[in-house]
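Dear support,

I submitted the protein below through the web form. The confirmation email said the job was done, but the results page showed an empty box. After a refresh the structure appeared. I'm attaching both so you can tell me whether what I see now is the final result or a partial one.
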Amino acid sequence: QVQLVESGGGLVQAGGSLRLSCAASGRTFSMYGMGWFRQAPGKEREFVAAISWTGLSTLYADSVKGRFTISRDNAKNTVYLQTDSLKPEDTAVYYCAAKRGPISSRSYDYWGQGTQVTVSS
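What the results page shows now:
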């Protein structure tokens, strides 16, 4: 069982940055691949980024490639999402998630409660 708690969301102007964090419970955090997803009002949840349990492999949605960076610190049981050059269309609730197995944009087992990111124009 893994429990996930996101933080770092907020209100930012277009072009700004936020660093989202996801703190995980459990001693086996380093065994899980981690991902970030987001859901905007009236839209389905969509994949944003993923990182392997080693941190050596990453995967990004085309919409955020070059602007967002996912990273992890297994010693701190934490995964991060650095969001730069934010756009109003990035406004959403951002969720982190954990999964066993290879890095992927799908099939996650555990989810956090989410943190709101709002980008004003």
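Response: this is the final, complete result; the empty box was a page-load delay. The mean pLDDT is 95.
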